[in-house]
Amino acid sequence: MYQQTERTTASRGRNRMDYQQATAHEILDEAYHCALAFTVDGEPRVLPTLHVRVGETVYLHGSTGSRPLLAARGPAGLPVCLSVTLLDGLVYGRSQFHHSANYRSVIAHGTAHLVTDEAEKQAAMTALVERVGRGRAAQSRPPTRKELAETAVLALPLREVSVRARVGPVVDEPEDYALPYWAGVVPLRTVPGPPEPDAGVSAPIPDYLRPPRSPWHTPATMTGTHVRLEPLDPAHTDELHQATDDEEVWRHLAHPRPRHRDELAAIVAEALRAHHTGQRVPWVQRCTRTGEIVGSTSYYEIDEPRRAVSIGHTFLGRAHWRTGINTEAKLLLLTRAFEELGAERVAWHTDIRNIRSQRAIERLGAQREGVLRRHRQRPDGSWRDTVLYAMTADEWPKAQITLQEMLRRTAPEAR
């Protein structure tokens, strides 16, 4: 519990105040943005910055030439006020007076000092890097001595600390309840989007930037004799384009043939956005014999409560048709669906014009269930009828034997 002081005691709305250390720590650790207020030459200043809490100290960093850090050099330090706020929702009242916001905020008063101990400074910098991604410090270059010399770190002890929060519904006047206006709360939250690699990056997206998923939405790596399925990543774009740059590969797909690498990069980015929103689980197909990326495939229409999933968005370089790669990829995907995820149903959708795909799906042991008329629009603008196939859990054991036999014979590939 933080001791109340004159500066941390509210004059209004005291029911919204909290002085518990655990509550303050939770907000400080969740929020990414804070504002540091101070005065320089009698003038107020506010500096938006990143922060990290280590125990009962908040560290902030900046240039050694910045005003607050220059002012903090003296033995007296720099009097500051630190504010960290999480906006949780917008509150819409029936009256304009009762519009508000749900939020959680921490205010800390105190004197910040420049960190001069090299070990403490290095530890604070590492903590700041880990703050934006656990494991990031080990996957980035440490600062040089010159960079450390150009960087100043401020330490603010957490002593005068208060938490203020507003939670809950609208608080309207009783006489306004009958007004014909919508009222309620619109929740807000900070959600990371799909990582966007910088130009020239060939390293895969690290695990700490991938959101936690249920097994149904996790592109687990799977390895067979012919193919290895790995999570799709922007770093695969060049190899994927080289392997699938063929008009026949894209003939019946949702996208026209990419004319150059950047168009395929956009398709990869679209797949990763769909994965980020839970609509798709994309893999690349890597040939185990050569180690090359040769195609891609996905789960989609994932319905975990009903234990159903579809397999599709598949494209494979023509040089690797009829080699066992795609047949084994289907075996791996079906095995994961039925035996690891406990699926009751796996479905396929294919263009009614794509006879080769239909025959291949039928060879897997899937049943044709019907035609969805004018189901999707083709890249040329025409409307396609889609043939729907599915396999159920009770049909899987026989289909598994069929697939294994197909692989032994290296039968024609399924698309």
UniProtKB/TrEMBL annotation:
Residues 227-394 form the N-acetyltransferase domain. InterPro entries: Acyl_CoA_acyltransferase, GNAT_dom, Pyridox_Oxase-rel, Split_barrel_FMN-bd. It comes from the Bacteria. It holds the Pfam family Acetyltransf_3. SUPFAM superfamilies: Acyl-CoA N-acyltransferases (Nat), FMN-binding split barrel. Keywords: Transferase. GO terms for molecular function: acyltransferase activity, transferring groups other than amino-acyl groups. PANTHER family: BLL6696 PROTEIN (PTHR43610), N-ACETYLTRANSFERASE DOMAIN-CONTAINING PROTEIN (PTHR43610:SF1). This is RimJ/RimL family protein N-acetyltransferase. It comes from Micromonospora pisi.
